[in-house]
């Protein structure tokens, strides 16, 4: 700028979020220079992510992930996403998938969201591990929203060693072991899901030293064992404790048992409705205890 008042534009998207020091340097025609006192500023840009589409009419070979030219499989979209991105999933059937090493941020999570109520994720036999239809491992700040999984070899959704994962608005039924299963994963949010008909065990199982889980506004029914189990699993590594859990607003009914809360400390349980459980005997409401030898 060569005329008073002097100014310059700064595109803050080229800078990282955080504290920065800005100083102005002036130069005259004779080559004399002077530098102002530095001023501290904080950059806090909201990341606006990209949106990708997958649909039964798409193609993983010729698609580009746009709404007009979607990919066929969620798997293909996961190769492209980064923090802040959203994958919109059209109604239809999709292969089971593994999300590994995908990391969003608190301000810019990675989101996989169903556009309607019919995005079905199918059991597969082509992955290295096909036990769990949706498998999330070594990820963070990832949102699974509105997907459906039935008849899994083990769990409809598994979250393993992945903090800050959200599973919401899903339907997970008639799975061999669990509807939703998590292990060694802190700061989970499990909300507004329906888990039913787990043939061997529980609708929702939060396990293995996962602290601060939120289990909220879910319906869990018709499971062979518990609607919900929280278990720090003291014999399985970690500190063997779940602390800071919040379980609220859930509806648990018509399960083999009610809910089993093991090795769970400093936690809040409120406004849950539990009824018609205990059809196999035992606790029909909430059972609190600790594992033997812990």
Q: Any descriptors?
A:
31 strands; 39% strand; 294 residues; globular; mainly beta; nine-stranded parallel beta sheet
Please tell me about this protein's structure.
- By secondary structure, the protein is mainly beta.
- It is about 0% helix and about 40% strand.
- It has one helix at about 75-80, and strands spanning about 20, 25, 35, 40-45, 50-55, 85-90, 90-95, 95-100, 110-115, 120, 135, 140-145, 150, 155-160, 165-170, 170-175, 180-185, 190, 195, 205, 215, 220, 230, 240-245, 245-250, 250-255, 260, 265, 270, 275, 285-290.
- It has a nine-stranded parallel beta sheet with strand order 5-6-9-12-15-18-21-25-29. An eight-stranded parallel beta sheet has the order 7-10-13-16-19-22-26-30, with no helix packed on it.
- A hairpin with a 5-residue loop joins β2 and β3 (about 35).
- The longest helix is centred in the N-terminal third of the chain and has 5 residues, at about 75-80.
- It is globular and about 95 Å long.
- The model has no long low-confidence stretch (mean pLDDT about 90).
